[in-house]
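Please review the protein record below. Tell me whether the encoded fold seems credible here:
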Amino acid sequence: MSVYTRVEREELEAFLRRYEIGPLVDFRGISAGIENTNYFVTTADGEWVLTLFETVSASELPYFLNLMHHLARRGLPTAAPLADREGGFLQQLNSRPAALVRRLPGASPEQPNAIQCEAMGGVLARMHEAGQDYPATRQNSRGPAWWTPTAERLAPVLTQADARLLHEELAFQRQASHVDLPCGVVHGDLFHDNVLFEGDRLTGVIDFYYACNDVLLYDLAVAVNDWCSDGEGRLDDELQAAVFSGYSCVRSLAAVERSSWNTLLRAAALRFWLSRLYDQHFPRAGEMTHTKDPQMFRRILLERIERPVTLPEPA
């Protein structure tokens, strides 16, 4: 979340008249994150998050907004979009597609603990189950088809060591086959700053704008790499076990998933190392922007290569 497109008070007041949420009280930009323009908005009837979509086209957005609505109707603690007076979720503001969602209570943990990891694992499995009857489909915009051209554009600005590591990992991932792995709707970006807690009680899952149809295990790998790694990229076995404890209470992993675990951890690390390298070397201008350090995921990738992670057999 960032601010690339400035919104003035009068513009926001006019926008909010499309909804039945009362007059504007206050609003402020959100600097965390990197993709879209976001504001916290307070009206007479509650607190909301306004998102102006900077890179996603209006034609793609119904997949995300309808998914959030779908999951919320099934009891998941997701940030459901707010319908306007005409019943639609998608609007336009300052020449950008825009949507309002209710602001969920709680805050993201700075360093997740085992209880929070277990809660996240359970919610992720519930999302995977609830997404099985979601009718729309969308390819992963940051999947293998994106990795190669992105790596080619980055090649001139990378160090020799980074270029070699990237080349070798892309070659490894091209040889991996995931055709037998269960697929479905995935969040795609379930970092700890996209999950809210009050104490150890999980209160919300946010930022579904990388959601797509992909391998379910990949979604779990994205989360574990972030939630369970220390500053050097090493995996904390206790935190990983807590994630799987919560997840397996809802959905059990197949044997083929367990044997593919380290490959998917490497794929997830590669995806975020690439995207952060790209944002670092080709930043977009914005009023308030936040670029994340790519070195963290370089360290995670090296750790998964040098110390492959295996899952113990279920009891």
User: Anything to note?
Assistant: The chain is about 40% helix and 15% strand. The beta strands are 24-29, 37-43, 46-52, 91-93, 96-102, 183-186, 195-198, 201-205, 212-215. The chain has a mean pLDDT of 94. The domain at 114-306 is CATH 3.90.1200.10 (Aminoglycoside 3'-phosphotransferase; Chain: A, domain 2).
